[in-house]
Amino acid sequence: MYEHEGEDVFVVDSHIHLWDASEENVKSDGGEQFIQCFYDYHTGFTPEGEQWSLEEYRKYGPERMARDLFGNAAVDMGIFQPTYLNDFYHTGFNTVDDNAELAEQYPERFLLNGRFDPRDGEPGLRELERQKEEYDVQGVKLYTAEWRGDSKGWRLDSEEAFEFLDKCAELGIENIHPHKGPTIRPLNRDAFDVGDVDDAATSFPELNFVVEHVGLPRLDDFCWIAAQEPNVYGGLAVAAPLAVHRPRKFGEIMGELLFWLGEDRLLFGSDYALWNPDWLVETVMNAELTEEQRDEYGVEFDLETKRKIMGENAAELYDIDIEERKRRFEDDAASREFGIGDGYAAAD
User: Fold this and answer.
1) Read out DSSP for 209-226?
2) The domain spanning residue 37 has which CATH number?
3) Average confidence (pLDDT) over 152-175
4) Is it the case that residue 348 has pLDDT exceeding 80?
5) What b/e string do you get for 211-234 counting C-beta neighbours within 10 Å, with b at 16 or more?
6) Nearest to 284 by CA among 242, 313, 223, 343
7) InterPro entries given for it (predicted)?
8) Domain hosting residue 66, numbered range
9) Which residue in 7, 27, 93, 112 is deepest, having the highest Cβ count within 10 Å?
10) Of 279, 207, 205, 214, nearest in space to 250 by CA
11) Side-chain half-sphere of 343: how many Cα atoms within 13 Å?
């Protein structure tokens, strides 16, 4: 269990992937451009000594992923967010079924989210039902800029998307994670615009909309939408690594988010393997607002706030009993494999 200045902090990484962008799986130029752009993000916001080679970045495999997440107890639990990109990769980039194979090895540690694409129509609704029945998914990751033939994306506030959100509500899939914000070559930035979240969130108050990447670079748009929609949350993937080389910018982002949304609607995410929680968790825990930022926004980024963001808020959305989980983690598969069970026993 992660410890910060002598205090235990339960970490739920709410945004992780197990992807395959190996040269054998790349199907089109778009697939190669996509992973190259991902790698640029990785090297641009990762400390020099923590950067991977492009080769290991393309396909790192389940064993390395488990070690990176749990090996030094940086993360207690992780939530898979699938991204298919079937026009770019032969077997998909990061699928529900691939994620499920790793989750089966560490059933206490991982939560599986599903996905949908409204362009799939009736077969897509049946696939969503399968994901719920087979894996009991509690959330879905949505990629509105994904290419499909001549189509270069879809809108969350469309009639077709609402059919799928209706199905989510019917199935009890309550947590909707749309990627909204930064684009990846060759996808279109406008197809990731946060503007289509407002109507969806208003129309489905029984669902939680965790806007991944907090709409960056359209942070103001996201904050104004989230301020009026109490069921809109902010996922900090992509924002978090700015704490490495752009600490003042990270402070500005956190100041805006804490001012508009408060400390109860923000979720930490590493976007693994874009960035590794092995070092990112510590970076965020050590980050501080400047005195000028605290005065301007009137907020604190202290230990109690960080505890909520790093794990307690995700636990609330996904019905995770943290104390009960800590007892289980004293002797689960990950604790036995990595010798980290004593950290949970000491936390009792």
Assistant:
1) EEEEGGGTT-HHHHHHHH
2) 3.20.20.140
3) 98
4) no
5) bbbbbbebbebbbebbeebebbbb
6) 242
7) Amidohydro-rel, Metal_Hydrolase
8) 3-344
9) 93
10) 214
11) 25
